Every structure is written in structure tokens, then in C-alpha cells.
What we know:
Elements (H helix, E strand, L loop, with lengths): L20 E6 L5 E6 L6 E6 L12 E3 L8 E7 L5 E6 L7 E8 L4 E5 L1 H4 L5 E6 L4 E6 L3 E6 L12 E13 L2 E6 L6 E4 L9 E11 L6 E4 L2 E7 L5 E2 L34 E12 L2 E5 L6 E4 L12 E13 L2 E8 L5 E3 L1
Parallel strand pairs: 14-16, 18-19, 21-23
Antiparallel strand pairs: 1-2, 2-3, 3-4, 5-6, 6-7, 7-8, 9-10, 10-11, 12-13, 12-15, 13-14, 15-16, 15-17, 19-20, 19-22, 20-21, 22-23, 22-24
Amino acid sequence: MPEYQLPQGIVDLGMLGGDSAYASAINNRLQIVGSTDTGLMGQTWAFVWLPEAKWGFPAKQVMTLGQVGNLPNCAAYDINDRGTIVGAAWNNGQPYVEHACVTITAPSVYSTHVFDHWLIDPPNPTATSIDRTQTFAMDRDYTFTAVYKLPANPEMIPDGSVFTGSGLAVVGAFGDSFYVEPTDRSWGIRVDKPGHTFAIGNMVSVVGPLGTDIDNDERFIAASSVTQTGSASVRPLAMPIKHLGGADWLYPQTGAGQKGVTGGCGLNNIGMLVRVAGKFGYIDPSTFTVDDGSGEPVKCVVPAGVTISQSWTNVGVTGICTCEKSGGVTKPVILLRRRIDIQTY
Length: 345
């Protein structure tokens, strides 16, 4: 049962300075969303009303979810029991532009994103409903409805927003950081947790805010909590070197995403376990290159205790795809985890 019970009869939730407000949906936690006039040049804003303080909002007040990009109007049409809100944002001018939006809520913050940039093409999609599995429906220009599953990828939310995820496999561990992926290998990300003892093959749950490394633009989770929940293994993604790093993903459309490497192509794979093979090139006792002829040779870095032989000719390597930036150019780098990540031919 909810901790808060709405009183009987009609309840005035309030407004945001305009003449009217409309409640669109209520979930089983008695969290309410809708839209309200603001009194600001005819603008309409989405609102949320909460029975108890949450996500940085006070209790029992109509609170705006804010504007989405440069679009002056927005409305919330549904909220599920996880607190995920869907709706739309639009302009007042010609040509008329409307975008479907999803607001992702977390233990202490919320963030709103335009999602139709990568889900379906315009014109004018609207997110109309969402269920407890994070599946939501979208109407496009009032002509048809499409259904989409919202991925649980932390890179979809901006820096400072809190990610909560479970069932994640540890695919690499390096000092105060480790990398995780879901078992479906749909994404990967660095987790910073000083003093951690997690190892490859652990399954973990992670909670913490997102950040972006200022040195190489790699996204990461600054974990406030990590719990081992079992064991899991993930196979590496084999690919040609020219696809390492990949292109920008949801960047900069959502204010989040993951920047790719300079001149990158294909799906973004920064933070993921990968495998490449090619001609060996010695650099120094901790670094070598692999060249498969598809692009620029990729630098590979080995951990302490792993010896590189200058006599190697061809190698296959498995490791974490990260990146480095110098002079405004971002290049992929593979972090090897252990000696068995290197096969010589």
C-alpha cells in the first residue's frame, strides 16, 4: 500500500502561474504528471506532483520538469511505477516541430531527453504511455503508434544523474576502476570505485552518478555502492580495427551519450570488451600495436607483470576498448587484462 493516501474528492494540485493545469496520469505510487500554463508568453510546461519528497523535489507541490533544449513547451502524458515519465516538447513557430521525450528518474535526480532523434524519423512524434518494463508507445504526427523498449544504458543520462543497474558482468579490473557490461553485450562502461576488490567474472549491481573523464571524454560511473550478486561471463566483440571506438552515440543530441573517436565509424564500443588481430609492432615494455590493415594500428597496453616479446609477428588480443586524446584527436586504445589476452601466431 502507498505510504500516502490521497484524500477523498477533488484535490487542487496547484499551478505554475498560469490560468490552467491538466493532470494526465497517476501511477501506483500516487505520483502525478501533467501540464500547466506558466503565464510566460503562453508557454506550457510538464509538471510532476509527488506525495513525498523525491528526486530533489518537495512533496505535494506542482513542480516543473523544465524545458527540453530550445523548445519552449512540453507536456507529460504518463508515468510508470519506476518514475519514468514520457511526453512531448514542441515550439510555437513555423515550421511546427514536436519531439517525443522521456524523463529518467533516479534515487536523487531526474533528467529529460529527446529520444525520437534515434528511435523514429519526424514528423512530430509524441511519447504517449509507458509501462513498468520501460516499454513506451509513440504516436507520429497522429498517424500511427510505435512501441519501443527503453534501454537501461547509463550513457543515456547526463553527468550528475544517478544510475542504478544490476546483473552486470565485470569484464576488466584496473586499479581503482573496473569495467562492466550486461550479459547481452549491448553496452559497456567504466566504474570508478577506489579500493574495490572485484574481478573478471563477478556479477555486480552498481549505483552512482555519471561523469565524463576530462582527459579522454570517456563516460564513467562514480560508484557510491557496488555489490557482488553472483558470477557472469561475457565474450568479447570481434571487430576490424577501423571500427574500434566507433562513432558518436547519442551525442550531442541528448546532452549525454558517448563521444566516439576521431573519424570513427560504426557503433560506439568504448568501454566494451573487444578482440582484434593483426601484425605486431613493438613500442616499449608495456605497449605495442596491432595492425590488421583496415585502419590505423591500435595501441595496446599490458598490465604490470605481463611481458612483451619483440619477436612476436602476428597477435590476437582481447581487452577493453578505451580511448586517449591528444591535440584534439581521439584514438582508440585497448587495455589488456592479463597474459592470456594475447595469442601469438
